[in-house]
Amino acid sequence: MRAVLLQADVDHRQPVERRVAAVCDQVVAHRGADLVVLPELWATGYFAFDDYERTAQPLDGPTARTLSEAARSAGVLLHAGSVVERAPDGRLYNTSLLFGSAGELLHTYRKVHLFGHQSRETALLSHGDTLLAQDTAVGRLGLAACYDLRFPELFRVLAEDGAEVFVVAAAWPAARIAHWRLLLQARALENQAWVLACNAAGRQGATELGGHSMAVDPRGQVVAEAEAGAAVLEACFDRAEVARARADFPAFSDRRVTADGRTATVRTRRGPSGAPTP
After folding, report:
1. Is Coiled coil one of the keywords (predicted)?
2. 104 is catalytic
3. Single pTM value for the model
């Protein structure tokens, strides 16, 4: 399977409609790929917090319709990054959209872990509360967004739901790009699954985004990585490699604690501060 990660540096001086049209033109230009992936909140700009309310749209709004048409025109599975979704009850979410090659909306994921450090995401958006993997033509996918990478239990829940490929849309800053690389490899290795991660590039306000979109195989090896600026990263991935990796090193069969603690009770001693002690 061939994935194309569009590491976009969107010109946020342009109207949103023009930004969306320009990126959709890039999607269509990659007709023949199996999967195309976009970054997190690329149309609005993750750090454009004052624009969240203005640019928010329902999932049948003009941005989603344009993305659907791009997926259909290209004949690709499109992970459209994420958009600011306005739900029917008026709440806003950071929502990832997955379109099939006929333009149908296959799956959505509302970001569970919202970022509060030097960010207004938690003040403006609502947390998602659903984690489900999705069967597609390229394998069973689990979706995640940016800050989710710091929470391994999210990926384990998706792995337990059969995810073979994690697709991550992000707006990860350049200042913490070493964490990005480390966490992507860790999430792939510990779950013995592919990770395809598309980061944004360029500057949004005072923040320089890090780029370095990556494809990591189920053994934690980086098979493709972009540089820091706007780029198109292509990577081939084989879903069968997941089963091979898990058969060669069957760590899943040795687990004592599942994501919800079902299989065992693990007791720890606690020191005076309340922290666990060896």
Report:
1. no
2. no
3. 0.93
